[in-house]
């Protein structure tokens, strides 16, 4: 094993270990993760909220035992693969061991560590963006058209993971157009690569078409309830924070495209960054949508700095450059990772209230960040539903209906009751509700603001409130579990009408 390979292996092990250490054992999985995990039982070429790639990994997790270790493993793996691509980019560009180590440290000790905690499309999205950049760097460096087909592969599977990759395509188009590398548009293999990307995406596009393009409805809901609270200036001001400890590497990369002769031909990357950020800003995107831009720039900045610090007194700045990202990460970790139990985190955020780190998508300030609140209360919820289910007659069909996908997915993940499957009229579950059996009993899981109405109770012979979520730090705090037994009317027909109304809403 070469020295470089030995170092790479060390960084890979460090990255994997870190992802398991940055979260306290008191936290459950995240709300979104449960939805993605349930997709393993309903494989399709598309979903209301996301394209299909995440569901493929959900199915692998299901085959491996469907436990939290594997749920955390795959986003960590995608983070490791991103690291390897940056490493290989530096090797392609002739970088030395210092450049390799500097980029690896900058990548590991950054906001990527937080995204790689969660089983969401984001980690694979960053990997796809980095892979696309990697192929284009190799193409520009070697002028071998083979890399353009690999680029198409990256765009195709990137699109099947998250539609976000379209904005990278826009940025790259502008970046190439504004530099001498615009000659790429004369290469027929570019269009061959794009044709390959299109071919890969066709099944999902066809699914969208046959289902009335639910992605449009999903984006409308995002814009109405989440992106409306996004401030354009906040989007821009948040960008340096993602790699705050290694921001000097990113700045160096931007300078290198104009001052370091070997990198002049990669100037298109400078304009790609500016153009993509401009599009995201215009559309009021969430700040983290742009994180996939940055890993490849660490490669260029690290090489450039290795040249600047290679001689004279400046060589003594090398250890500082390596230590700074780690030090900044250590200082900020208590604020940006759930490494402490919720009660302790609550106190930490009270002491740093001016930072507004606990502002949720509703625009309001809460006790802990929304992501962390979305990782609490789920096991308690599943236990209460199991208790409710045990009170229903075993020879009758009891359906669990929830208010949102987090509740339904968490119950399905943590339940200890065989054959219990929770559903909801929320997100993709509206297409997964099975009405083939006569429903005699219901377990309703309701958010505190909704409750169970007198009318609903009147439709059943017996009614009992089982309990509520007691964790005050959970976003599901005071969520109600209510058992309704022995229906007086045809529940299946009522639900069928509600499902049709919901599906009609999605088609509008």
Q: Would you write up a description of this structure?
A:
The model has no long low-confidence stretch (mean pLDDT 93). It is built from 22 helices and five strands. By secondary structure, it is of the alpha/beta class. The chain has helices at residues 3-21, 31-38, 53-63, 68-92, 97-108, 112-115, 121-142, 146-161, 165-177, 188-210, 214-225, 232-238, 247-259, 268-282, 295-308, 318-336, 342-351, 370-373, 378-390, 405-414, 454-458, 491-507, and strands at residues 397-402, 422-424, 439-446, 460-468, 480-487. Strands 2-1-3-5-4 form a five-stranded mixed β-sheet. The protein is globular and about 85 Å long. Helix 5 packs across helix 15.
Give a summary of the structure in a few sentences.
This protein has 22 helices and five strands. It is of the alpha/beta class and 508 residues long.
What is the strand content? 5-15%
Structural class: alpha/beta
- Total helical elements: 22
Count of distinct strands = 5
Rough outline = globular
